[in-house]
Amino acid sequence: MSRGMNHFVFIIYSNAAATLILFALSFSIHSGISLAIKDEVEDLERAGITVIHIDEAALREGLPLRKSEQASYLEWVIHSFRITNCSVEDTTQIHTHMCYSNFNDIIHSIINMDADVITIENSRSDEKLLSIFREGVKYGAGISPGVYDIHSPRIPSTEEIADRINKMLAVLETNILWVNPNCGLKTRKYTEVKPALSNMVAATKLLRTQLASAK
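The chain above was modelled as a monomer; its predicted structure follows.
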């Protein structure tokens, strides 16, 4: 899979990966869903799509309460996710997204998903996700901890978003950091979305200029 940018086209499988992971199905049915998504991914690649987003891999939500069952569960669901995109070319970039949850205790399983880029909730949980990177965990692929909470009508300022990005840059390399909202925007009105995204873009450009001038 590609670690760099190609044609910027997103194909969103709405909750496809969540369906795959959350339902306690038999192994044969579970494998069948993985292979069905894999077929769709291959069709998109043949059609010339080079950036494919397999949405909402809800690992944490299906985690067994019994600690003795958690390791085998995580191994199973990570394997199932990787089946969905195991045949893509190196030039195809695989994205995924994980919404509100507690990720720190399964961060190594998230890394093992081997997605090229993961967008992950961060701002609503008061940036708890970043603590795991402060403790020394290294993430080698692209990662986008959300810079603002899309479930609130509040519009974050450029300065606020820039401050969040700076906190991310303190623990993540610049070449792997992507800047995105926490999640999808369907719960927001256009009058809320446009200024919020404009401020996010302005903050990103501001920090790119600052980083370039610091070299």
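The longest strand covers residues 93-98.
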